[in-house]
Specification:
Blueprint (H helix, E strand, L loop, with lengths): L1 E4 L2 E4 L10 H11 L1 H10 L11 H8 L7 H7 L12 H6 L4 H7 L10
Antiparallel strand pairs: 1-2
Helix pairs in contact: 1-2
Length: about 120
């Protein structure tokens, strides 16, 4: 996963918690489940059940251990412990976020714990 800090791309360390073909799994699940589709459209995440997440991934996420590798980024100086969540550049384009807001969001080190 990549994000930028003042125009510099950084590599974020993370545990892999989803299946390889997670896009296909999500598409099929949303086609069959209208309630989940509404939830996805509203939040861009599935809060109740996400079929893309592996059993080990569920445990890692439930215990927040999936964030542990990001402390390597903190030690490297690419992230802080507290700060805005790391962004994927395509998210800005997908949501049509104005350039000046993108620049403000990327002017702060991303954080492991958010606010």
């Amino acid at each position: 996963m990549f994000t930028r800090l003042n125009g510099k791309e950084i590599n974020l360390y993370k545990f892999k918690t989803m299946y390889e073909n997670n896009d296909k799994i999500l598409k099929e699940f949303l086609e069959k489940n209208s309630q989940a589709k509404e939830e996805w459209q509203k939040y861009r995440k599935l809060k109740t059940y996400d079929p893309r997440v592996t059993p080990i991934g569920r445990f890692l996420r439930k215990t927040s251990l999936d964030e542990l590798p990001q402390f390597i980024n903190v030690l490297k100086g690419d992230m802080s412990v507290v700060g805005p969540r790391p962004y994927i550049m395509s998210e800005f384009e997908e949501y049509n976020i104005p350039k000046e807001i993108v620049n403000k969001l990327l002017s702060v080190k991303p954080g492991v714990t958010e606010l």
